[in-house]
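Give me the fold.
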Amino acid sequence: MISRPSRSLRLTLKVNFRAAALLAVVALQLWVSQGAHAQTMLEENCRSCHTVARTGMSLSGFAGMTNLGAGTFKVFTVVPGQVASIGIDVTDGHDRYALSLSKLGIGGANDSNNHLVYQLDPNWLNHTTFFTSRTLTTNQQLTYNLDVKTNTPPDFYLLNMDLGGISDSGSVEWDQFEQFYVQVISTNPPVAQILNPVLNDHIFSISVPTVTGFTYHLEYTDFASNPSWNPIGQVAGDGNVQVLSDSTATVSLRFYRVRID
């Protein structure tokens, strides 16, 4: 049975078992060449000077979270030709501070030859960095609007957002950074398929044809009449057939589905 929710596709399978030196240093500068991806000219690592860790911001407006091998990060999803709006909630910015978006020239998580093609947010100083001087408020909500061009290949792109600052007394240089994915997806999502279901010694596995730029989630429930779906595994699409498995298949009856986002 295939169902088509608004933002993802699901296929359900029933299986029976037996038993900133910011403010003082050079900021990130980028340019976009015609028909090519953005190139990094110069990138300053705020953490090299701002050595005191601080929790002062969080990213908002993301679609979900995923782990593609480098850790679990927030995901901002965008279709080529649209804008990815990255929300930044500054919760501890009472000192002088700045925000910096970087790693825009990085290759895709599935294919390192893939690169973002984008237009930078013109409302940020130097087009990639938002600076502010002394502020008394600790709760500022900012947005970076990343315009993703139509020729950007579908993939996951791991970017950095840095919050760096210096105390009003000048005695402490602090920093926080957060990595996150911009997921560029195809305009038409793929149809979920489940192939070669196998149960072997309480390990259930399936094969799934994948498409680059999408994440494939295996979920299960033990109650079909009123299901509460539980995540059990995921893979990043790379254009190949990949395997998803459940090593906890010890009950007599279980239902599975593949969810794509």
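The two ends are 18 Å apart (CA to CA).
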